[in-house]
Amino acid sequence: MKNENITTASAEYKILKKKMRKAKPKKRIILPDPKFNDQKVSKFVNHLMYDGKKNTSYEIFYDALDIVAGKVKDEEKSALEIWKQALDNITPQVEVKSRRVGGATFQVPTEIRPDRKESVSMKNMILFARKRGGKSMAEKLAAEIVDAFNNQGGAYKRKEDMHRMAEANRAFAHFRF
C-alpha cells in the first residue's frame, strides 16, 4: 500500500515537471517614441535597429514616413495612420506549427497571440523592405509601407501564404497544443 503511493506520487511529479516550464519573463515597458509619442513606433524601430544604433533607425523610419506622405495623397490620413493601416493589412491571424504525433510531423494551424501578431507583421515588413534592391533603407521601407497599404508586396504575400498553409492543414486542427 505504502509502495503504491510512492509510485503514484512520483508519477504525478513527473507529469507536473513536464508541464511546468521556466517562469514567464516579465513584460518590459517600452517607452513611446519622441515624435509621435507612440509605443508601436518604438517597437518597430527596435526591430529595425542594428548594432544598438537606435537614432539611425529612428531617422530611417521618420524619413520613410515623409516619403510615404509624398507618395500617398490621402488628405484624411497622416503618414503614421497609413503605416498603421499597412501593418494591419499584413498582420496574420493564424500560423502553422510543427507537431509530432506518433512518427509523423503535422503542420497544425494555431491562432496567433495579439502581441506575436504585431511582432510578426513588423518583422515581415522590415524583412521584405531589406530584400528590396538598390535604394536607401528609408526608400525601401517607404515602398514596402505603400505596397502593404495597397494590399501588395512581399509582406502581404507572406501573410497570404501563412493563411493558405493554415487553410490547407485545417484537417489537423484537432492536434492543437
From TrEMBL:
GO terms for cellular component: small ribosomal subunit. GO terms for molecular function: rRNA binding; structural constituent of ribosome; tRNA binding. Keywords: Ribonucleoprotein, Ribosomal protein, RNA-binding, rRNA-binding, tRNA-binding. GO terms for biological process: translation. The keyword Ribonucleoprotein applies. It comes from the Bacteria. Residues 20-170 form the Small ribosomal subunit protein uS7 domain. Part of the 30S ribosomal subunit. Contacts proteins S9 and S11. PANTHER family: RIBOSOMAL PROTEIN S7. Belongs to the universal ribosomal protein uS7 family. One of the primary rRNA binding proteins, it binds directly to 16S rRNA where it nucleates assembly of the head domain of the 30S subunit. Is located at the subunit interface close to the decoding center, probably blocks exit of the E-site tRNA. This is Small ribosomal subunit protein uS7. It comes from Prevotella amnii. The lineage of its organism: Bacteria, Pseudomonadati, Bacteroidota, Bacteroidia, Bacteroidales.
